[in-house]
Amino acid sequence: MPRRSIYELAALAAVAGLTLMLFGVGWRMLTYRPETPPELDAAPARELTAEEREALRDADGIVWSTRVDWAALYPPEAEAEAAPDTALARFAAWVEDLQERTRPYEERADALEQRVTDYATDYAPGYRTMVEAANRYDAILGWEIAGVESYNPVIMAEDNYFITCVARQDREARAAEIADLRDYCASLGMAHLYVTTPNDTCRYDTGISGVMDFYNQNADRLQAALREADVDTIDLRETLHEAGMDHHKSFYQTDHHWLPETGRWAAGVIAETLNADYGFDIDLTLFDADRWRAEVYEDWFLGSQGKKVTLTRAKPEDFTLFYPKFDTQIHIEIPSLDVDKTGDFSVFYRYGAVEPRDYYAQSPYAAYFYGDNALTRVHNELRGDGKRVLVLGHSFDNCVLPFLALGVEYLDSIDPREFTGSLTTFLRENPYDVVIELFTE
Questions:
Q1: pTM, 2 dp
Q2: Cα 422 to chain center, whole Å?
């Protein structure tokens, strides 16, 4: 057979195969009906026995293998109307179902990739030595700046404070989201308050703010949009300066978080607003410095920014745990850690994050409030006012909430990054006097 005929037959076969494939996909789209996807594992995970759970519990009372299906506990509210049964709708449902089927595999692949990355960046032999050598070389050359989009966007500000730069962001969508939550809370008879926190860049660092870091400009736009939407807000950035506090000294030098004493101050500002505008009766002297005892761990803490630039360029700094000089009785529950404790103020602390000292592997800041968790519930057993507060926030609230909890009877906390359930369902099932959003974003 001539070579040209062979090529023509091969091309014809390829076209025919492609046509059949497209026909099959089209038929699948038109006739698709959702099915329950099969379980990835043949057998569901077995519940731990009481003995196994206790054997896994660490010195802080944490069971790290605990898993909570928040989406099952707080599922989304039902749609008002069923989707129309059209070919386009069936195609969209088919794509969504395919995404749902593949998502567990993607999550496993992502988890495996993260494990490999963690090992390569944290545990590979000689890794820290190489990073320290690179930073020593940068210091010799005087290179202080990394690009905002780079892996290591850390710069040195005045007074030897490290700063992580934030890119310029549009805040209109976020403002609309906050206003929607305010409206939903109002429909349930709950008040709503949004709190803007400062970050490690002072807005008056004119050589950095608005030049290399845009956190304050983003926050300004968000605050303006919220005021226009009549959302109740507190802007702690200005309140900090009005109180005569030094911005840089309110933060760790090597970390993007504020100091615990700054968090206690912020709790006092929020409590003052709750008293003035929301009918609370919180004793504001609870937050006075002279009512607290400081336990200082000297040269104990190397923050996230310090870890990036290593000990060749950053110096360890002191870390402090505070204890009240007055009586406290707290009950704290953290379902995702199987924590259920009652005791004095110290039940707010995860001591395993502090000791033993390890500059690179430990994060002492996570001692406050046990770090970031989907849901934490606190009952102040020495208060009887019945007031209930929910705080939505990220890690900045970890050293605020233990102090704020002393002023109300019930305080719950949700980290939206960890909570996979429906917030609207949760609010419908859990009434609060005030819902507070406390974010550095």
A1: 0.77
A2: 16
